[in-house]
Amino acid sequence: MLFSVAIFAARLLLPMALVVPLFGTIFIPLSEANGVNAWLIAFIILVISDGWFFPYQYSPKLLFSSITENLGFFNEKLLNQGNMLMNIMRLFVIYTSFFYWKWLGIL
Question: If both were cysteines, with which of 18, 22, 42, 51 could 14 make a disulfide (CB 3.0 to 4.6 Å apart)?
């Protein structure tokens, strides 16, 4: 869980294109040295780093907003609320996946 929070915190300051290689370069070798499957660390990094809190953090959202700005296709507030729910779900899914990974014997 702390690992996920660290990735979210890094995403507040850095773009996804930097967070993924930075955390991957640091934590994948550490996981292998400590007997944790590197695929699990890569999965967590990719799932969590795709999350965003503010529109400036996610360039596809900025592009979509600029294209549909005056068309009224979507409710900005509802989209942001849905995104916050998605971020919470990301944490929940990763947490519950630990039980499955233990059952498979890869954790």
Answer: 18
C-beta separation of 27 from 14 below 8 A: no
Q: How is residue 30 written in tokens?
A: 């550490």
CA 22, CA 27: separation in Å to the nearest integer? 9
For residues 29 and 47, what is the distance between their CA atoms, to the nearest angstrom? 19
Residues 6+ apart with CB under 8 A from 52: 11, 58, 61, 83, 87
Query: What tokens were used for 61?
Result: 């959202």
- Tens-level pLDDT at each residue, the chain (107 residues): 788 889 989 988 888 889 999 999 999 999 999 988 999 999 999 999 988 888 788 888 888 888 887 787 778 888 889 999 999 999 999 999 999 999 998 88
Structural domain boundaries enclosing 31: 2-104
